[in-house]
Structure formats: structure tokens, C-alpha cells
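The protein record filed here:
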Amino acid sequence: MPTCCLSGLRGSRWLALGIVSVWAVLGMAGFSSAAAPPNVVLVLSDDQGWGDVESHGNPWIKTPAFNQLRQEGASLEQFYVSPLCAPTRASLLTGRYHIRCGVHGVTGGTENMRAEELTLAERFRAAGYATGCFGKWHNGAHFPLSPTGQGFEEFTGFCAGHWNNYFDAPLEDHDLRNAPAGYITEVFANAAIQFIERHQDRPFFCYVPFNAPHTPWQVPEADWQRHVHDDVPPEARCAYAMVENLDHHLGRILQRLEELKLKEKTIVIFMTDNGPNTDRYNGGMRGKKGSLHEGGTRAPCFIRWPDTIAPGLRISQVAMHADLLPTLLELCGLPVESPLPLDGRSLAPLLRQDGSTAWPDRILLEFKSWGAARQPALGAARNQKYRAVRENARRGWELFDIEADPQEAVDVAADHPEVLRQLQGAFDQVINEVKPWELAPVPVSAGVPGHPDVTLLAHEGSLLQERGGGVGFHSKNGYANDWVDFWTFPQTGVAWPLQVVQAGAYQVSVDYRCHASELQATLVLSAGDSRTQIEIDRPFFEEPAPSLDRIPRKGADEVAWSTQAGGVIRLSSGVTTLRLTGGQKAGKEYPQVKAVRLHYLGP
């Protein structure tokens, strides 16, 4: 299996960035301040469906900012993303199908994007743009997989799939946990506006991946009280309130651009990352978040650039998340060529209404999951007229005529076998191009120069179970913020793939909670033949923090943790597996574990 020795520093990647930088400098050398390349503000929301926009016919919400973008710019009427959030983000940032980037899930390391990928931020930064990310990342929490390792000079937000509390959240702010207080959507909008203000005199790329309306169901009181509908379930009510709050803060960003006289100089894009996370209005489409049908993958996408994109433009050709990287590079006058093959196609001719450019039909692909042997793969293929879907391994492929049957009620595979063969063939081609090792979780790097500390969170690892038991995640699913619980068997525990950049000694500690009855427990940390122990000899168990949820959550609560230092483990350079297992214990269970911490001491 190939390794990724500090994958972000591979020579080929930096050679590619160097070439991009030279191209960019040559392209920008003649620009005066009056003819500078455009700024880019890319806004992404989380778990907001196609139907969560007033102009798409939703009678329960008011979204003036979304409406404004749609009226003043272009709307991609058939725009598609992935069924889940981390895959969409990887494709958006790289212009490539997410499975080529190592991303095919949302937890356990499957959300990590390989650092060799060239992101939009890296391409813009090489061209002299200021780059900032303000919101949810969800493509790797540790350098060089983090935002600051993938091209962003500034970052305020969080790297996991969601955050536990949306009020006064302890966010990362330039790699320090000191972000300002307030409701999380407002915090991200404030950070984006401040970034724009600081860099108004130079080109900037401002990426704002809001986390609303992802759970937990938390929203300010005024927004919550504005939505009282007898015919709307509580979850939908809160989603609509969160969307309206987001729309308000997007409006503030648009207003500030106008006040700074940057409106005509800035490309603004709004899109969402998958279908809605509850059953609510979605234009009658089949499916929601997680589904490969239209309702789980069709998303709003509005693009505004005054004087270049005609207001009210409606583009009916199918398009996808991976198209935005080549589109933005072309619109900004930067080279689109890449050393890594792109799956996206520039939409600039459609946005400019360049009739001289032919636009043939194309096939867009979506990938969801596959078994241990990678077969059968589950996914979908969409051209202008048809959608082929394999969402159930036992059922096989289905085919729907979306133009005639947008609700996907009738399987027409038997009537059009040649169409199904074409769509399935395109899907199988990409699946066969991806090697098995490329789907293994991307390792976390330890011992990176300048980054001596690594915190391996429980949900980033995989459980070491015995006959399906002996240990589990507290909330069963192991999503973001979950922890190890129900731990009874000493041979079980949790493991993380690790890329050791600098061999040497590492001080270890563990974040835990336990009752007095679970004391005198020994936890064993090992990698290959090297091992050390952590003795838990003092109780720490506080009840969860008071909930601000409008609707009780199904995931992990916000709880406090104690840190217990252990011994020193020596790690050799290269890829390894770090295992936390049980040693001796006096009680029935081992302590609950949130994280293992490593601190590089030296060779």
C-alpha cells in the first residue's frame, strides 16, 4: 500500500503548485488595480435542501438574500451534489469526484481528503489571492489535511461533521480556540465580513461553509418564534428558522460587498451540500439527505457576477459540484489545467451565454458506498434526461426518465436497456479506476514540523471489537463528537491510522470520564512493537451541559472531560496503526474515552 509521507509535501504536489503559480503570475502581471481579477465569495450551507429556498416554491420560509442572488445572477436549475456533506466538499474544492480524493464517508477517517489534492484555495493562493475559510470544514482535522494545510491562510470554524453547541462554541480561530462568542452562523458571517474588509484592496477567495441547518436543532429565540406552523413538524420548523437566520447573515455579506463598492468586482456563489435532513418541502422530489435520488442530490446553486452574468439567467443543462473549480478559475482568468485529472467542466460558456461553444450532453456521477470487497458499489449516474440509481444492493440498478417522471415513480430500465448500459458503464469506469488502497481512511499525520501536538478523537478511529461487542460508541453511530463507551473486553478498544512524519518519542495522554467504580483501570497504547500505559486512578464524571436544543438530539451530548497523562511511546516513521486497548481493570467497564493526545518530544 502506498504511503503518504506528509502527503501535503510530496514533490509532485509542490511542483504542480509551482507551475500553477508561474501561470498565475504571468496571467496577472499586467493587471492594474482597476482591472484586477474578480474576488470570489463561495457560500455553502449544510443539510439545506433544494426546497429550502423561497423562490423554489416553499410557502413556509422567507429568503430575500437567496432570492436576490437568483434574481441578480444565474440559477443552475439542474445542479447536483453528493448525498452526504464531506464528499460534496471534497469534490467542490478539488474539481474531482470525491472517491478519487480519499473521501467516501463522514466519520472514521473516511471524511479525510488526501493532502496531495490541489484545492481551490491552493490555486487561488498561488495566484496571489488572500484565502480564508469560515465555517465547517469536514475534510480533515489535522495538518496538513486541515484548512490551513490545504491553502487557506485564515480559518475560523470547526473540522468535524457538526458541532455540539451552536451558541458560544469553542471554535478554532487561526488554529487557536478563541473564536468570539455568539450564535455560530453570525460568528461565521462576522469573520467572513472582517476578512473581506481586511483584503478589500487585493483579490480574495472567501469560502463560507455555514453549518446550518445541520443538527443539533439550535437557533436564536427570535427566529424560532417567527416559525409557528400547525402543519409543519418541529424538525422542519427549526430547519426553516435556521435557514432564515442564515439567509439574513448572507444578506449582511452581500450588503457589505456593496458598501465597499466590491459588488461588481466579486463573484458570489451560493449552494448547498446535499438534500434536506428531514422530511419537508423539496419540490416533490424523491429522497432526502443520504439518498441517491433527486431529492438527496439536487441542490440550489446561484452565481452572481454583475456585468458578466446576465441577471435572471436560468441554465437548464445538468451541472455538478466538481464544475465550480474549473468554472471559477476560468472566470478569474487563471489556468484550469491540473496535474490531477479533473472531473468537473467549466460552466463559464453557459454563464457568459457564449453561443459559439457547443454543449453536448454529459453524464454526472454520484457515489455512496460499497461493501468490504467494494462490490456492489452504490451510486447514481445522471444525464440530461435520465437518472440511473443503485441505492439498494439487492434491488440492482433502476432507471428513471426525469423529464417525464421527476418524482422517479416508474422504473423504465426494461424499456431503455441501452441507456442504462451507458450510464452504468460510466459509473463502473470511475469505480474501476479507483484502487482499493485509495479508499482506506487517510492517516492522520503526527510529528509534523511546527505541529508537535495531535489530538486523535474517538470518532476519527475505528472500533476494535470482539465478536461484534466488547466496546462501542456512546451514541452508537460514531459520528462527530461521539466517544468510546460500553467497554468491557480488554482485547477491544479503538484504532487510528497514523502517518509518523518524525520518528521519536511521543508523550501520550487520554481524555476520559469515569465513575469511582471504574477506577484502577489501565489503558494500553501501542503501535507495532512499541507500547505504553495510562493509569486511570481518579474519578471524573460530570453530567452533560444544559441543552439549548429546540428538539432533543439523537447524537452525542456536550460533556466535560479530564486528561490523564501516561507514559512515552516511541514511533518509527511511516504509516502505522495506533491502538488503544484495555489492560487491567477493577470495575465492570473501562473509562469512557474521548481522545488520545500525542506530543512530539524529539528523536
